[in-house]
Recover the amino acids of this structure.
């Protein structure tokens, strides 16, 4: 029972207790605040500041391989090295004050220079310049693109102010082989030209990340790793044969130099499948060292340039008049060296001759402009235009090379009087090498126009194979037209004046030459220099390969006979590479005059 | 319970409580010395403490085993990193050696030629197809004298067959200055006929 005498001591007790409880409540509130209300924030802070570890996982850029799987472009790691000038000055000060046993910068910089290939003065100047700009700076770029061996050597110096960061780079083990098609990447890894750039969606890798908690010394605490995996790029397979491409590049380089031409190119087209087996040109680019190539040589002029085809179009006109004009290889016309046509049109041959009774075969053998103009009158110009379009002239080929140029074929209603006849022998129209190869493939391979492609497939890292979209095969001329054209073109190579230069012993081949005029940029043609083409196919009885050889402004021999050696060697090499058997049948000689 | 002392003065004297008749008599007796407390068994105590230690030890060793793996992983990862560096260095060294221009330059330096059209032997009936020509000395391309397909990775790499040459070509022979007019004698043979090393 409480009495007055017990009340005041008990009140003191109660008050004391109340104070204690209040303080306790304060602590409890604070504890709840920390542990429950702001818990996530504090946990996050601890993870970020104390425990967090993060590592970037690099994906590797995809490789480019040739049709046999040989690597044409692969990925390597290079390193970008930098120094910390502030730390250098601090260490140097400590060494001079005898507080540290490290080596002086003057000493270390000699070793660094020996490893990176710079001179010691250059290295010291890098640090000196950085300190002159800002004496507290902690960053000065030493060298980019350091190789792994140099990087390990620098790491073995064990100096704390040298730091290297890896950056993925590209290596092209075969150098300039197919460099015109593959393209190259810049120093920052960004693709700059050709297929490296246009097929980036196939080749590019995405980086991933690895986050973990680390204890002392950076050891990963087990069970705390979280990984976003990196995805590698896919493998791009081309239809190009690497060894054949090398041979063609070496060959056309030698021939262009022999003929003192500005450029040369060779295209090898497999008619039955529509795949390009070699696309060589000179001059070209070595992707390992692209800056030494001229700006105009860093891409593929085969796919980006057009030219006036000249007499190679006589083959297309002949196929047209056989298919739609009821002509045969032995149909005749009378043509002299200079012919006049309605509308004031004059057509001249490349050599003076009296009126001959040329057969269609003879017109192609002698490459008579007047003769083919007369034959072209057997069909109307709209039909010829339609056939040219179906052969693919002026359409582009969809090969897969970026920004591929299409030829220029004006529509038939735009053909004036002169152009109507000029197009019969390939003037007044421009085309590209792939278009021409594909058109001749259609002429000689049963009349079916196949697609033309340089890209075989893109294989993603998970194994899915993506093939490019190619055109459907299309019939242009009939089978019998194609058979007759094979005979005609074979006779051209048997009876023309360059026949000895192009013959390949043991094989039946056929083809046509062309000498196109070059525009001087002011609406006139250059005098005395031409763009020469020679296109041929083998074996003549069942064609498998079409080879186009072009020379831009050859000066030693200015006509298309300049291409003969190159064509003969190129076709020989193609037949050897693909083990095409020698012919077992003899050609049928067709009459030149009727 | 209040510990306030009761002052003897303030309390009225109590009268003796009346005897309640008929209440059962409580038996009261003097308490003797308190009963001896039993000593707790030492064994149980030891078992309890030992158990606690055991549990602690087991937990520590388990945790040691789990973390031991991480240290091993860390050192293996370092080893893997070093090996990756070595692989990269070796790859850089041999990159370009498999390129066709290097192979062709090596072959041309030995004197091999790229032939013209070959002949084929048909095994079924022994027929020879093709021109049956002897390979003449000229090569259709000159891979060593006029090498035109560049490769920056191997520009200065010496050829395997002729270590003085690179894919750029054979070195130009400079005649040694003749001492005493004996420059034209061939070097003496010491180990028998010179033979190429083949693999």
């Amino acid at each position: 029972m409480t009495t007055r005498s017990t009340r005041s001591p008990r009140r003191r007790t109660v008050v004391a207790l109340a104070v204690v409880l209040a303080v306790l409540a304060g602590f409890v509130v604070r504890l709840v605040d920390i542990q429950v209300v702001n818990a996530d924030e504090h946990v996050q802070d601890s993870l970020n500041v104390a425990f967090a570890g993060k590592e970037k996982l690099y994906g590797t850029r995809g490789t480019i391989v040739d049709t046999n799987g040989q690597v044409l472009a692969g990925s390597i790691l290079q390193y970008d090295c930098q120094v910390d000038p502030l730390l250098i000055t601090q260490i140097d000060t400590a060494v001079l004050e005898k507080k540290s046993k490290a080596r002086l910068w003057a000493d270390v910089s000699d070793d660094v220079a020996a490893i990176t290939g710079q001179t010691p003065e250059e290295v010291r100047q890098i640090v000196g310049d950085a300190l002159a700009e800002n004496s507290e700076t902690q960053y000065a770029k030493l060298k980019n693109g350091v190789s792994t061996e140099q990087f390990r050597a620098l790491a073995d110096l064990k100096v704390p102010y040298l730091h290297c960061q890896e950056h993925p780079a590209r290596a092209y083990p075969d150098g300039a082989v197919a460099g015109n098609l593959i393209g190259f990447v810049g120093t920052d890894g960004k693709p700059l030209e050709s297929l490296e750039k246009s097929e980036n969606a196939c080749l590019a890798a995405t980086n991933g990340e690895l986050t973990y908690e680390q204890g002392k010394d950076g050891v990963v605490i087990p069970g705390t790793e979280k990984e976003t995996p990196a995805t590698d790029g896919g493998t791009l397979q081309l239809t190009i044969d690497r060894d054949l491409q090398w041979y063609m590049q070496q060959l056309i380089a030698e021939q262009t130099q022999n003929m003192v031409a500005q450029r040369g190119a060779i295209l090898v087209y497999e008619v039955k499948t529509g795949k390009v087996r070699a696309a060589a040109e000179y001059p070209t680019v070595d992707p390992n060292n692209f800056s030494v190539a001229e700006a105009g040589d860093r891409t593929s002029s085969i796919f980006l340039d057009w030219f006036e085809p000249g007499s190679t179009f006589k083959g297309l006109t002949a196929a047209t008049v056989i298919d739609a004009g009821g002509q045969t290889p032995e149909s005749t016309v009378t043509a002299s060296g200079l012919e006049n046509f309605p509308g004031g049109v004059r057509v001249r041959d490349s050599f003076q001759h009296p009126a001959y009774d040329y057969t269609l075969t003879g017109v192609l053998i002698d490459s008579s402009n007047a003769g083919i103009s007369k034959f072209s009158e057997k069909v109307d110009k709209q039909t010829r235009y339609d056939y040219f379009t179906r052969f693919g002239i002026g359409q582009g080929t969809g090969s897969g090379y970026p920004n591929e140029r299409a030829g220029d074929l004006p529509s038939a209603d735009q053909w004036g009087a002169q152009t109507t006849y000029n197009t019969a022998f390939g003037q007044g129209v421009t085309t590209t090498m792939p278009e021409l190869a594909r058109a001749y493939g259609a002429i000689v391979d049963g009349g079916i126009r196949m697609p033309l492609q340089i890209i075989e497939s893109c294989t993603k890292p998970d194994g899915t194979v993506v093939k490019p979209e190619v055109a459907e095969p299309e019939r242009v001329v009939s089978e019998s037209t194609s058979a007759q054209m094979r005979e005609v073109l074979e006779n051209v190579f048997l009876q023309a004046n360059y026949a000895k230069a192009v013959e390949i012993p043991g094989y039946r081949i056929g083809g046509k030459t062309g000498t196109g005029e070059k525009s001087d940029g002011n609406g006139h043609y250059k005098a005395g220099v031409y763009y020469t083409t020679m296109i041929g196919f083998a074996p003549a009885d069942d064609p498998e390969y079409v080879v186009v050889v072009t020379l831009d402004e050859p000066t030693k021999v200015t006509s298309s006979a300049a291409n003969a050696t190159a064509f003969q060697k190129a076709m020989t090499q193609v037949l050897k590479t693909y083990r095409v058997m020698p012919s077992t049948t003899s050609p049928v000689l067709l009459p030149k005059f009727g | 319970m209040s510990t306030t002392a009761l002052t003897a003065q303030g309390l009225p004297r109590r009268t003796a409580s009346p005897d309640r008749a008929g209440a059962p008599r409580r038996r009261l007796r003097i308490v003797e010395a308190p009963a001896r407390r039993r000593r707790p068994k030492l064994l149980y105590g030891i078992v309890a403490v030992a158990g606690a230690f055991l549990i602690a030890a087991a937990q520590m060793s388990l945790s040691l085993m789990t973390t031991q793996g991480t240290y091993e992983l860390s050192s293996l990862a370092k080893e893997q990193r070093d090996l990756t560096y070595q692989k990269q260095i070796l790859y850089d060294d041999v990159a370009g050696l498999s390129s066709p221009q290097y192979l062709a330059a090596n072959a041309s330096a030995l004197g091999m030629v790229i032939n013209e059209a070959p002949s084929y032997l048909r095994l079924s009936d022994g027929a020879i197809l093709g021109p049956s020509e002897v390979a003449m000395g000229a090569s259709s391309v000159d891979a060593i004298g006029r090498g035109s397909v560049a490769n920056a990775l191997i520009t200065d790499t010496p050829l395997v067959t002729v270590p003085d040459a690179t894919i750029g070509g054979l070195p130009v022979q400079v005649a040694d200055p003749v001492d005493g007019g004996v420059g034209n004698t061939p070097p003496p043979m010491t180990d028998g006929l010179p033979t190429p090393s083949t693999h």
Notes: The domain at 242-458+473-577 of chain A is CATH 3.40.710.10 (Beta-lactamase). Chain A has 20 helices and 21 strands.
